[in-house]
Amino acid sequence: MEPMQRARSETAKLEREDSILTATEILLRQSGYDSMTMQAVATAAGLAKGTLYLYFTSRESLVLAVYGRLFDRWIDRFAVHQPEFTGFDGFCRDFARHYADDPLFLQLTGFANALLEPQLDREAYIKSKRGMARRVKRLAGLVCQQFSIAPAAAQKLIWGFLTIAGGTAQMTVSSPITEADLPDDVVAFRGLANFKTVFLNAAAPLGTNLISR
């Protein structure tokens, strides 16, 4: 495949960026982060490698952009979901259930802040932080809609949820070792250390002083 011509207009640049993110997401789902290279992305997107670097200055900034897009998709789904449970405990359960729906999103959550952000240049770092601030405000708005609490308290709650989700994702990263190769006590522990269970145990107490059950 011959590389495409450089995009000139702002619309063309946005479309090119979207195609890069789509190609990267596909590669991440197919082969994982460790096997994904900038050259592979450029080839999949039909670009010269040098052109790819005009849009994303590093592999880390590219993967973090994919993570941001997956994060926005998750919020879109969560915003329109039909709650299965009531009260704050129900909100926690719905949050965890939807958060764990996409294995790639959960995987990137586990190392986005710890491994990717420290490698960003200044512009990519600012963009990442502004994107997260926007997501926190949007999620806090959903909390305000469902519970009678102030916006500041809702943002505090969401920051707590996201902090727990990030730590939980790191703790529950899947191992390539199969259960058949493990002793029974380790298998039993793995069964308890799934994302939803660990998240709920940590998140449920956050609403005690903020939300009336």
Could you give the topology of this structure?
Blueprint (H helix, E strand, L loop, with lengths): L9 H22 L6 H8 L3 H7 L3 H22 L6 H13 L3 H14 L5 H25 L4 H21 L12 H9 L2 H9 L10
CATH homologous superfamily (4th level) name of the largest domain: Tetracycline Repressor, domain 2
The overall strand count is: 0
Given as residue ranges, the uncertain stretches (5+ residues, pLDDT < 50) are none
CATH class designation of the largest domain:
Mainly Alpha
Q: Briefly note the CATH topology name of the largest domain.
A: Tetracycline Repressor, domain 2
Number of structural domains:
2
Overall helicity: over 70%
| Total helical segments | 10
N- and C-termini, Cα separation: 59 Å
Structural class: mainly alpha
> What does the average pLDDT come to?
90
Radius of gyration: 19 Å
CATH architecture of the largest domain: Orthogonal Bundle
Shape: globular
Q: Profile the largest sheet.
A: none
Strand content: under 5%
The sequence of SSEs as H and E is HHHHHHHHHH
What does this structure look like?
The protein is mainly alpha-helical. The protein has 2 domains: 1-56, Arc Repressor Mutant, subunit A, CATH 1.10.10; 57-207, Tetracycline Repressor, domain 2, CATH 1.10.357. The chain has helices at residues 10-31, 38-45, 49-55, 59-80, 87-99, 103-116, 122-146, 151-171, 184-192, 195-203. Helix 4 (59-80) packs across helix 6 (103-116), helix 5 packs antiparallel against helix 10 and helix 6 (103-116) packs across helix 8 (151-171).
